[in-house]
Amino acid sequence: MSEGQVCAIVGAGEGLGVSLARTFAAEGMHVAVLSRTEAGSAQALSAAQETAPSGRHQYHYADATNPGSLESGLAKVEAAVGPIDLLIYNVRGSFTFKPPLDVTADELRAILELEVVGALAAAQAVIPGMIARSGGTVIYSSATAAFRGSPRNLAYAAAKFGLRGVAQSLAKAYASKGVHVAHVRLDCALDVPIVRELMGDRYRQGQTANPDDVARSYLWVYQQPRSAWSNEIELRPWTEEWTF
Amino acid sequence: MSEGQVCAIVGAGEGLGVSLARTFAAEGMHVAVLSRTEAGSAQALSAAQETAPSGRHQYHYADATNPGSLESGLAKVEAAVGPIDLLIYNVRGSFTFKPPLDVTADELRAILELEVVGALAAAQAVIPGMIARSGGTVIYSSATAAFRGSPRNLAYAAAKFGLRGVAQSLAKAYASKGVHVAHVRLDCALDVPIVRELMGDRYRQGQTANPDDVARSYLWVYQQPRSAWSNEIELRPWTEEWTF
Amino acid sequence: MSEGQVCAIVGAGEGLGVSLARTFAAEGMHVAVLSRTEAGSAQALSAAQETAPSGRHQYHYADATNPGSLESGLAKVEAAVGPIDLLIYNVRGSFTFKPPLDVTADELRAILELEVVGALAAAQAVIPGMIARSGGTVIYSSATAAFRGSPRNLAYAAAKFGLRGVAQSLAKAYASKGVHVAHVRLDCALDVPIVRELMGDRYRQGQTANPDDVARSYLWVYQQPRSAWSNEIELRPWTEEWTF
Amino acid sequence: MSEGQVCAIVGAGEGLGVSLARTFAAEGMHVAVLSRTEAGSAQALSAAQETAPSGRHQYHYADATNPGSLESGLAKVEAAVGPIDLLIYNVRGSFTFKPPLDVTADELRAILELEVVGALAAAQAVIPGMIARSGGTVIYSSATAAFRGSPRNLAYAAAKFGLRGVAQSLAKAYASKGVHVAHVRLDCALDVPIVRELMGDRYRQGQTANPDDVARSYLWVYQQPRSAWSNEIELRPWTEEWTF
């Protein structure tokens, strides 16, 4: 049912981005990956190409901390492959745990730029076309930090809260135009390289979400019929002791 | 992937129950429908049989207001068709809108019996087997009333709140045993006969959820890989002006 | 400002009930305590009498698991002292931690009777008079379990969820008649005898809420001016590592 | 109990700021008002002076869109009057309703600067001293938009979501040091000049919150004993038909 449609992934690094590229390519979609460096998206692009060699998969430059760059990157995707049916905003800033008193204004601004300002800019680049075609989907990758303040990572929590506000506002504003906006919250660690590194000795594979499994639910969101959409989705592994 | 598995639906009336029976039968599953009268499940049973004539679909008696009856009905399903892989608890009490001061203790008890006590009893009938087999899914049909008090239907809200408490508690208790418990909230009216009747002149088909579309998300929940489960799912039509 | 008004406390045992009785007596209110045995309320009644000897404090019989008993007990308070201005529903069932599979239908019914059916019955006994007088307050003592399922105490969670549904529904239905309904959630252990016993070696006084401090916020809720009411209040000690 | 303590209000305009200044001055506190122009705080300062002529009330310059300015303004308050016991962050940007597609990146950045970056900067200016003195309170004025996306005011919703993330993170990080951080949500329109103007013909005094009444709950938050703190407070008038 998704054959020939176009999926653009902003922030297609080596973790979830690779699984998303593979999953949507396997559905017969053309997958465009956008990031600041071509190397950053290389693994995701390869995954799409290997999965579905006939798809018109491609890399385009975009810097998610620059709204104009997002706009022009996504415009290039549309010029090259056609209208974007699915936009996945999957960026991730580097973050370090620190007490709130040590967070600088510039650190906070940088992550807000990525998670809030960029999130809106990317949506603004594709939603007018989706409205014109009476259909389209925007999915934001998010985290439990969008629902709960964090004593050790205030900047990340503030930004993810803000992202959820963006997603809900867009969802409410454009649903009746056929645009499905969803906020996918991972209530867990992902089994990807960066997490293995961050967690060090605390890492347990069985207690993380497999990114291919996570990507399957992105596909489900994309394929939901419009009379029964989900707007806020949570995902956690069976081993997670969830408190929310 | 679900071929030959067993789905039991408690409360398979003429609305969503029919769509659920059809959807899971189409996946190659054996569908057992349980209700107080065979006539009450007849439409759902027919839907399963017509969709997949080779499935061992069947009706069994169960009264959801009687824990013992739920237990024996579900035991009969397992004796007849095999272990239940998916239990859907989809009961619905009759309800009338009235001011909270007019709700009687017996009305409140009756709906709590159905939505809370029965919900636990049904789960208790199948979860031990699921634990023994390291896998299984329980899905509760719920509503926005599980999240928000209602000035016109206190009993329904109190019961749905309670149901959500049951679902969350079970989900947390047995996830690590491989049992996936989900609470599916419909944030909308369903396009089914009872709703058309209740809404009367206010009914607008385009503003309701199609039960077949809703059933697709039940299927998705059932098929989610265990490293990335959703426990609380909301569904609403694209036309819904949601406030939550 | 509360001088001469009438406060009825259902479930005025040795813990928070004593502090509530003392706090409202100190405001010049007449305090009626209701429980199944006079001995059960003796400490609360004494606290009120010692704090304000001139108040018409009294004990009345009520069994919170019996709606008719709640109704007649509260009617006796009004006959003896005058219209009830503040009803505090502060009951507590005995509970034992156990896996959800071990919770019996009767255990679940018993706690629903106390926390949901009784909660409505008590409100129904006083709200008509409050509406007639265009003012009055109903406060429910609740817990974090009203917001989060519990893998070790499903029955308590289901009941507290249900209680919250009752409180929200009443609040919405009767606010415009001048009736203020509030749900006070203690996100912590209380420094009272039963908790010391339950927690045993894990008990740390500094990590519990002082019941006199908790009672002060009940007073604040009662005295809030009607143009700025709170309906859901959370309380936790400064030492609590809260996750919600 | 608050006699002689110091309250600093950032954003003390003609509405709620005036009531806050009056309320805390009446408790015997020294009230410092901070804003970009002295004229902007004139009414609040007068209210404090008239209420309690002996208090050392004063105006200090601060631009809430400039972290350094907030820091130096609050430092001047402490130099002039003494350590700040209570900081109220009560800023408000001008806002216009518009579709999300029309919100510019700069508009979004401006409100994030005020509601998120400024909120953290102001807290950082006072919390180290509060930790050193083992006590202090920070209250953020917020709105229902912190809980729900808005199809007509995405920027405001994103910013208030972010503010809530800041408040929760600070609350969790510094509670155990004696610092009480609270997020007060007004789930209603306020009876203040700007709202009367914005609402025009839709304005109904009886359906708004009186700012003096709102200020009383700020006082209550400030005076809560530390063993039973509230961190998230909602306020709405009795006439509000709340949906959350």
Please provide a brief summary of the model:
Helices cover 45% and strands 18% of the residues of chain A.
Which shape of chain A, going by the Cα principal axes? globular
Strand proportion of chain A = 15-25%
* Cα-atom radius of gyration of chain A: 17 Å
Sheet with most strands of chain A: 7 strands, parallel
The mean pLDDT of chain A is 94
Oligomeric state of the chains present here: homotetramer
Which residues of chain A form runs of ≥5 with pLDDT under 50? none
Query: Using CB atoms under 8 Å apart, which protein chain pair has the greatest interface?
Result: A-D, 44 and 44 residues
End-to-end C-alpha gap of chain A: 35 Å
Helix content of chain A: 40-55%
The H/E string of chain A reads: EHEHEHEHEHEEHEHE
Structural class estimated from helices and strands of chain A: alpha/beta
Count the beta strands of chain A: 9
What is the topology, as strand order, of the major beta sheet of chain A?
3-2-1-4-5-6-9
How many helices of chain A? The count is: 7
